[in-house]
Every structure is written in C-alpha cells, then in structure tokens.
Amino acid sequence: MRTRASVYTRSARRRTAAVVALLALTGVAGCDSTVAGAPDGPGGSGSSAASESARPEPVRLTTSFTDATAVPIDGPVTVTARGAALDAVSVSSAAGDVGGTVDGDSWTSSDLLEPGTDYTITASATSTDGRSVERTRSFHTVDLTLDEQTYAAVAPLDGETVGVGMPVVVTFDLPVTDKALFEKHMHVTSTPAQRGSWYWLSDREAHFRPKAYWKAGTDVSVDLDVNSLPAGNGIYGQESRSIDFHIGDANVYKVNAQTHQMQVFSNGTLLRTIPITTGKPGFTTRSGTKVIIEKFASKRMNSETVGINRNSPEAYDIDDVQWAMRVTYSGEFLHAAPWSVGSQGHANVSHGCTGMSTADAGWLYAMTRRGDVVEYTGTDRQMTLENGYGDWNLAPADWKAGSALS
Hints:
Immunoglobulin-like, 3 domains, 29 strands, mainly beta, disordered N terminus
C-alpha cells in the first residue's frame, strides 16, 4: 500500500553509490545520415577533431539502485539525467503512482515503496540538440515476509464515539526499536485543537493522550504514516492506518472507598449518587484514575482468572454477572452485585470490583461508553500505568517524558 509523501533519507546502508544506466542514446549531428564522430567519407574535407567537437554529449539517465530485482523500500528512488534536460519522471505500480519532484537534472521520489511490488519508470528528457527522449524501465522491490513487517492495531475503532478519558492506543505485532522515526510519522489532530503527546509503554505499544481529558464533542483524527518505514532490526511498517473518532459526553464517576459512595457526573452535572461496595482487606481496590475498557451485558466471573484457587474459601464462579464494565486488565469491574446489597453504602466486601444494585448498574451501563472515566479514592493501593488505560495517573510532564522525541 502506498503512503502519503514521506521521505526517509537514512537508508544509505541500503543504497549503493553506484548507478546503473537506465537509458542511453547516441546523438546524430546535423540533418544528414552521417553519425557524429565518423569520418566525412572519401574526399571529405572535415577533420576527425571537428567531427568530434560537433557531436552532442550522449544522453544518459541513471537510477539510484543497482539490482532492479530487489530495490530497497526504505529510501527514495532517484533518476538523474546527463547530456539532457530532465522533463518528467513517473514511477507507477498497480497500487498507484509514486510522488516525486524534479530538481535540476534529478528526480527524487517523495513516497516510500511497497515491498514485493513491480514498478515502471517512465522518463522523458530533452537532449542538448533539442531532441525529445522517452524511455521506460521496470523494477521490483524487495520481498518481505510477515516476520519482517509490523502491523499497527489502533483503538478506538474508526467512527467510534468514546469517553473523555479514552487514549489513542497503538499496538504493534512486532517490536519497533526506532521509536523516534515511527513517532515522527504518527499524527493525532483534534477539533477543537488539544495538545497532547505519545508515551511508549513498550516497543510494541504507544498511547496518545492530551494534557487533560478530551473536551466533550471533540473530533479526533489519527494518521499513522508508517508503511515501509524501518522499525529496526530488519523490520518495516506493514501498512499505514487512518481513523477518525468522536468524543461523547464528559462522563466522570467518582468512587470513594471510605464513604462507599459513587457520584456520577455527566458534563459537570451530578446525576446520581450510588451506594457501592469495593474490595475487602486482601483484595483492596486500586485508587487512582481508571478508564472503562470494555462492557458486557452479562459476563462469567471466575476467581481462578484472578489467581484465586478453586479450593480457596474465597473462590467464586458466577455465570451471569450483569452490567459489567471493566476498568483494569487484572479484573476490576463495575457491575451489578445483588448478593451484596446489604453492604453497599456501608462496607467493602468484594474481591476488588465495585458492586452496586442491579437497577443502579443497569442505569449506569446504559449511559457508559468505552473511555469514560472512573476516579477512585480512599485506599492505599495505587492504580498502575499498564493495568488497563492507566494513562491519567501520570502528570503531564511525566507523560511527555515518555515520548521518543522528548
């Protein structure tokens, strides 16, 4: 897949200084059939030196690669003219044309190439004696396996409406070691404009968030122009990605584990205060800022998935927990807990989840989107960056320091 204009100039290791003739023509002097530089013929009065001086310089067009069967993808293709003024160059494949510009006697591509693809160069020039020259040449780019290409998965989904705490999450299936190069080609824009930064959690995962929660009603565009970019260690970007998503209402839920209450705010207005229960001793709910990751109208919850043995007195296996909203990868949810209604608003009796009545949970579930914010206070156990969308637990300066370009 061809990318938008992006020139990568650090590919000297993949290119050779040698050039290969693409087109070569020998000029003809005058209007007769005599080849320039040949004797005038029997009895002719012209000298060899005069003939040589009248002969125009041969037209030669050269390219920046030597092996037309395995052209590198991580640098520009150049076409250079000698003995002629270069008029135009096009490089095309079944995927479309490759952008480029003529500067003096050279043409340089401005798009990176797709691996394993056949391309055709068409070049036209005007020789010193005014003749028009046009020639074509084909080449094939290097073939890459899937093990040599990293694919970027993106959240949110294209067209999705999410909450004000939703980060842009980019997950690569193979490691990116040249993070700075990739980040230069990973762009997030918003309307209204809100400044933000990338943070690399690892060489496979990068998140983008603004300085503060997104403004309700914001439109966000993500442009990952990484196709064919060298990721390092012989790995290249597999495909560029572009998505657009929308920020919905500013839903922020404030959970206090000491008062056993949750305040539900939307766009700054308190809608409801809900009695809740959180984690009991040994299963303390984490304090800090969490974000709704996913929702389930009904979900099986089994203690073995969070490290509690089936033979433990704390074991549980509930097939149909209703209105479950995940906030950590480690298994914290907000959900209906009809079995603990007597403790809700009074005591913490759960294994870490935030439980409430079925009616309250159903009401909350109906208004909640992925990306809505849940702010927890009242415990001595802190939320961590990697355990879900923990992005908001870092101060803006610390978040910015996680950029590869900081």
